[in-house]
Amino acid sequence: MKTSLIAIPLISVLAAAPAYADFAINIGAINVAPDDSSSSLNVIEQVAGLPNGSTALAVNSNTQLGLTFDYRIKPNWAVQLIAATPFSHDISVKGSAIDGLKVGKTKHLPPTLLAQYHFMPESQTFDPFVGIGVNYTVFFDEQVDGQLEGALDALSVTGANDVVSLKLKSSFGLALQAGVNVKLSDTLGLHLMLSKMDIDTTGRVQVNGNTVQSVNVSIDPYVAMIGLRWTL
Ligand code: NI
Questions:
Q1: Measured in angstroms, how far is the CA atom of residue 107 from the centroid of ligand 1?
Q2: Cβ proximity of 32 and 110 under 8 Å
Q3: How far is the CA of 215 from the centre of ligand 1 (A)?
Q4: pTM here?
Q5: Ligand 1 centroid – CA 231 distance (Å)
Q6: CA 225 / ligand 1 centre spacing (Å)
Q7: CA–CA distance, 162 with 166 (Å, rounded to integer)
Q8: Residue 167 C-alpha to ligand 1 middle, in angstroms?
């Protein structure tokens, strides 16, 4: 999915007069499961004598502690901010004779702001909703795996004194969401949601700070959360 900017519904909701307000905190497990695809590692394919286009990068899934904040500004409309402890993902090669080769790992934080439409705000039990918003993902603490370093050495791309590093570009994109809040009492409940986020990045393998391989990666994950909901 290419990044498209649909911030207008969000802004119009934020600009609406808060005639009605309640605030809720959701806390629980949040999982990021990449629905990933990438361009091939063309330079490494060439150096290693692998078929053109036979490789891609794969990103594994990860679960963290999710913390989301809901601010109901109208009976049918709420704004949600998604936060979490940093996600950690392993990155490896998919395809060809080097399938499974570990490239490295990265951490990221994907703060997301959504406008939610609630279908049955008066319901005493089930409060289903859909949301649309924007996601900003910052990657940090990228680390190269020894397997990639060994492969680059074996291919004579690097020598003993070369420093290999990995860099991932931050991403800004659309987020879609559906979910339900379940009321257990006036203040306690459950929060379940599934989001699809457009997260696209460029991964760069660098030797002594110079990029030797650049790969465009669409991570486009499903983000699922199940948590306890506390309404203030
Ligand atoms: Ni995308």
A1: 19
A2: yes
A3: 14
A4: 0.88
A5: 34
A6: 21
A7: 13
A8: 18
**Residue 4 alpha carbon to ligand 1 centre in Å:** 9
- How far is residue 100's CA from residue 19's CA, in Å, rounded to a whole number? 55
Q: Which amino acid is at 178?
A: A
Q: How remote is the CA of residue 165 from the centroid of ligand 1, in Å?
A: 24
Digit-by-digit pLDDT tens for the chain (232 residues) are 444 455 555 556 555 545 555 899 999 999 999 999 999 999 999 999 999 999 999 999 999 999 999 999 998 999 999 999 999 999 999 999 999 999 999 999 999 999 999 999 888 899 999 999 999 999 999 999 999 999 999 999 999 899 999 999 999 999 999 999 999 998 999 999 999 999 999 999 999 999 999 999 999 999 999 999 999 8
Closest CA to 62 of 91, 40, 39: 91
Pick the CATH number of 3-231 from 2.60.40.1840, 2.60.40.350, 3.40.190.170, 2.40.160.20: 2.40.160.20
CA of 188 to the centre of ligand 1 (A): 36
